Records
---
Amino acid sequence: MARPVIGISCYVEKIDRTPWTQQWSAVLPHMYIDHVEAAGGAAVILPPRLDADEHLARDVLARVDGLIIAGGADVESVHYGAAPHPTSQSPRPDRDQWELALARVSHAVDLPVLGICRGMQVMAVAAGGVIEQHLPDRVGSEEHLPELGVYAVHPVSVVADTRLAGLLGAGEIDVPTYHHQGVEPASLARTGYTIAAWHADGTPEALEDSNAAFRLAVQWHPEAGADGRLFDGLVAAARH
C-alpha cells in the first residue's frame, strides 16, 4: 500500500551551513519527520509565504493526504483582535498567513489534521478562538515552560470518550511541554472544538472536532517524545 503523504508546516530561516552563512532555508526539526515515517507516512514540508491565501492552500492540500501544523513562535495577536503582551515573540507573518489558510481550508475539505503546540493555537484562532498570551500571569508558575531551549514534562488529564482518549487512553499522562501561551477556554464555544485534555491549572491541553474525520490538536510536543500514537492516528486517518 502506498504511504500516505503528510504535509508539515515549517519555518523559513537564515541558517549557517558551512561554508554558507545566513542562507534562507526551509527549517523543521527532523523529529516530526521521524514520527511520520515511523507511523507509515511520507513527510513533505510546506514552507510558508507572505502571499499565501486559501486558493494556494487548497491547491497544496489537494496533493497531500494529511496535515501537521507544527510548533513554533506565537501567533500574532492581531489575528484575534488583541494587543501584544510584553512577552510575545516577534511576529512570523509568513507562517501566520500560510498556516491560518491551511487551517481553514483543511477544515473545509475535512482533511486529517494534527496541530502541535502553535498548531493548536493556529487552529483555534482560524476558527474564531482567542489566545491567552502569557500563562504564568494566571497560573503563577512556569511549569509549561520552565527553561528556555529545553522541553519539560508535566501531566495532563485526557477526557474520557474523546478521540484523543481512543488514541492515548483516558486519565493522566505525562507529556513533553514548551509553551507560554494557551487557548482561552471561553472562546472555544464559537469554534466547533471541544477540549480533549486539561492541565490541572485550567489550561486546555488538547482540542478536537468530533464532526471531522480526524481533526485533533495538542498543546504539548509529541514529536519530542517516544510516544508516536498521535502520529499513528493521523497516518491511519490519512490512508482513507
---
Amino acid sequence: MTFDYPGPIEWQDHFNRWVQLKAEQEAVGLDEKVDEIRRVLDAMLADVIALPEDDTLAAAEPDDLQGIRSLRPSGRRRIWDEIPMDEYRNRLEGALLGRCAGCTLGSPVELFPIEKMERWAGHIGDPFPPVGYWSAVERPHDLKYKVSPRGAFTSVQMDGVPTDDDIIYTLLGLLVLEDYGPDFTIEDVGRAWVDYLPYAHTAEEVALKNLHRGIPAAEAGSIDNPYTQYIGGDIRSDPWAYAAPGFPEKAAELAYRDAYLTHRRNGIYAEMYFSAVISTAFVVDDAVDALRIGLEEIPQDCRLAQEVRWGLETASEIHDFRDANAAVSERYAGMHRVHAINNAVLTIWGLTIGGSDFTKVIGQTVAMSYDNDCTAATAGSIAGAILGRDGVPEHWWAGFNNKVHSYLNGHAVFAIDDLVDRFIEQANRVVGDNGV
C-alpha cells in the first residue's frame, strides 16, 4: 500500500510576508487585492472538499456501527464471561499506571525528532532511550494545558501525574459512564464535553466548537473537520476497555459512540481497535495476541487494518526506535505526524520491541518520535494491563503520589486508587448489562 500525497502548498508564509511589506509601504489597493485572493482560495478549498472519493475504498470504510460490524472478520467477541476480580484489579492498576507513565515520559518531548531528544539527553546527562523520567526539560516554567508546569514532568519535581490530554480523555470517559451509564449515546458524549471539557485540539477542537455553536453531536465531527483520521480517537480508547475487560466487542462499541463525536472512518477505527486491544490485554500474556484480536473489531479491509497487519508482519525486522522511525517515515511520507495510522504502527512496534520489559516498551516508543506521548501512553496501557501493577517498576509511579492533575471543569485532581474503584464499578455495570 502507498499513500500518495500531493506536495505541500508552501507559498502561504511567503505570500503573507509580501502583504506585510506592502502594507508597511502603504501600497494602494492592497486590502481589495487580499480580499479577492481570499475569495478565490475559499472557492478553491470548497472545490477540493467536494471532490469525489474512491467508491471502493469508501465501501470498505463505513462510518455506521452496523456497517463496521458487517465487515469485521470472525472473532472472539467476548473472552471473560465473568470478571475475576482480583486479577482484573491488578491488571487495571497496571494499565492505568502504565498509561500515565507513558504519557508523562513522552509529554515533554512530544513530536521531538530523534536527534533533538538525543541532544537533550546528552545535555542533561540522561540515558537515551530513556529508562526513567527526564531529569530536566526545556522551558520548565511553561504550563501544559494551563495547569501543570513542564518541570512537573521531571523525576525531581513530579508530584502527581501532570496534566495532559492523553490522560484527560481517560478521565472524561469515566465521567461519561458515571453520568449516563453504559448505554450512553453520542449525544450524551457531546453533553459531557460541553460540561467538562474547556478546550481541545485538532478534531476534538473542531467538534467542541461545533457543539458550542449548537450543532448536534452526531454532526459535530463532520463539519469543517480535516482531522477526522488523526490520532485523537486513539488516545480516547482506554476508558471503554477498562470498563469492558475481556470483552473486546463491547469495548469497541463503547469506543465507537465516543469516537463518532469527532472522527470518521480510520479515525473511528483507531479508537475501536485500541479499545479492543486493551480489553483483550486484560486476559492475555502477550501483547501480540491482543494486537491481533483487536483487528477482529474493525473492517478487515480498511486502511488501518491493512497497516496494522503490515506492522505485525514486519515487526521482526524492527529492532529498535531507529528502525521504527525510518520504516514509518519511508512508508508514510507526507502523512501528518499525529495521524492515527502511522502512530498505530509505532505503538505496535514499541510493544513488540519491549516485550515484557515495561521500561523498554515506553522508552523505545518515546524514542521513536512522532506523537510519542500518545503512542507511549497507549503502549504503556496495553503493557500494564498484561503485566499488572507489579510489572510496572515503582520508579514510574512513585512520584504520582496517588493523584492525577486535571483541567476538566470542576475536577482539578483525581485520586488514582479512587479511579481504580470507579472503573471497577463501571465494569460491573457493563458486564451486568450484558447477561452476567
